[in-house]
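Hello,

Following up on my earlier ticket. Below are the two sequence lines again, exactly as submitted.
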Amino acid sequence: MTREMTGAKMVIQALKDQGVDTIFGYPGGAALPIYDEIFQQNDIRHILVRHEQGAVHAAEGYARSTGKVGVCLVTSGPGATNTVTGLTDALLDSIPLLVISCQVPTFLIGSDAFQEADTVGITRPCTKHNWLVKDTDKLSSTIHEAMHVARSGRPGPVLVDIPKDVQFASGTYEAPKPSTSHYKPRLKGDLEEITELVAAIEKAKRPVFYTGGGVVNSGPAASQLLRELVDATGFPVTSTLMGLGSYPASGKNWLGMLGMHGLYEANMAMHGCDLLINVGARFDDRITGRIDAFSPKSKKAHIDIDPSSINKVIKADIPIVGDVAHVLEDILKIWKSRGRKTEVEAVSKWNKQIDEWRAVRCLTYRQSETSIKPQYALQRLEALTKDRDRYITTEVGQHQMWAAQFLGFEQPNRWMTSGGLGTMGYGLPASIGVQIAHPESLVINVAGEASWLMNMQEMGTAVQFRLPVKQFILNNERLGMVRQWQELLHGERYSQSWSEALPDFVKLAEAFGAKGILCKDPKDLDDAIMEMLDYDGPVIFDCLVEKHENCFPMIPSGKAHNEMLLGDADTQGVIDSKGSVLV
Amino acid sequence: MNALQIKKGATKHSAYNLRPAFSEIEERHTLAVLVENEPGVLARVIGLFSGRGYNIESLTVAEVDHTGHRSRITIVTKGTPQVIEQIKAQLGRIVVVHEVHDLTVEGPSVERELAMLKVVGQGDKRVEAMRMAEIFRANVVDTTLDSFIFEITGAPEKIDAFADLMRPLGLAEIARTGVAALRRGL
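Thanks for your patience. The regenerated structure is below:
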């Protein structure tokens, strides 16, 4: 189907034809023609944010919780530059996004026009791909191609920059058709390598699955297949921050999260295993710790859709390039056809060893009668919400790690957090995007007060669109993770790591037209959480917690997995000069 | 270190797997990258190298297929085997990159570079420069009473050698294209 229309109309038509029903955006001069088209239709809902960074994080929340491409619309210049953090965040966490940025008219490009920025130049390193469309006839096909690139292979953010004259001009609209793009990442893994992995599975005495965001990105089928494989083999499974929920936290083979603030049993299993099966994770430095001491005795299989992930950090003995669901399906098929063999006795011995590590109970903390421990707050939040239809977002810092440790996820796409980039200010706008996608569900942003303030303007968005997002702020009046590192690494010199002149969060909530709840006594905590849950509208929950609590377990920088710090250990001088240059 | 260990061309499935992927030895590789000729494609490739801290020893680019809008970028780079593999994988990940060939690994290839050298001088030096140029099969493409511009084509080492010889004879300016390369045979 082809027909004539303006570029602005084409943008809306192309998005509609791509199945987009929601866009997050903020208008401006160069975007006016598209905004005029938005005004004249009802198929696509526009969510007006308060800052373009909020639009991108909201679209990320929308994308992560639905598996669909999140879409943003911003104006030229500052509108576009404000998306850079969100684009980089989505690139590092492989989140499919389409940002449509508007541009000054083509005849003004290069003249330092008002609100002109070299948007494709600025966003080139922080997108999977980007386009400047100079010809209205190419606009619709570019948007279709952009959606294809965003969602195919390893997902990621893309940007289409549209000059204002291209929006006004008329051109021929082309409906989406099966992509003719040469960009077709491989989905099926090499069967020879998969068979090699199956043989390794059959012989493994101390195996472990190390899963990541790739399982979530591959879709619900991947999580289903992972569960089947884990349960059938009886192998223990751990996950990165990004992959939480793909294997249920209540599953009997679940080890908990691994890595810098991962669980003792998970990291010890990684260190001691003889077969490490990486499923859609990327050996991030938060996971590996010291590279030369990382899982020293294991054979390593690595399943990843992105060939550049393989051998980037850790050498893979069995590299498998392919989509997680496709590869897991083939593993199961081949393993079953060869008689479903495992070293049952050895694996059960290994699981017993893991139970001993579990018995260390690494998440134990000292309870307090007088102040709310952040871990306790999360334990209560978990107890009171785990049976609900619940989505969790977080900001970045100690609270994020505690949330990963103390909240259990039974399903994928229920946990939205900024992993790779560690973007403070992510959680509030992300919770808005999640709530838009799941209006009937409970959406909680577990936050720290400092992170939360970075994008607090988005409370306005939550109130405007009647989004009952719950902002659960663990308020320690500190930049907790920075403070913890300064304690461990910089002689307890707490440089700029406290939150001075904090707002009264209850009054702030009221000023926005939301509900505010303050809680500082552990005895009141359950009632206060219930009050938050029962309120039909956005809530800012100011939970005053212990100010100097540290997040444990912790693998100090430059150390190996078996050199974890557990809670009350003496933390002085644990990181040497070599480790302290690492972040 | 065994000399054989730095032999190139072995892959995972080769009988001569002599190239440890995580070796610390730096190798020079010539990569041919076929890309869509669209605005910004060179910036993507160069940005990849600068952003990830890889080396570029030389880089040439030109459209080679006008109807298909394909350009060929020839990059000479240096790195450990792991870095070279990463460079190839990262290049392959760029959406507008169609093919990445490691000419150093894929078998014998021909590498050529063109250079122009301006040599300023009179008398014996001028005669000597001319004689050297003949030995190197360099052509004179411009001449005045006081200067020549020589055009020379060859492997980069040949151009280096020629430039070294011209230096005492009055080499004033040099322009080089960087390496273009093709695999030998079919």
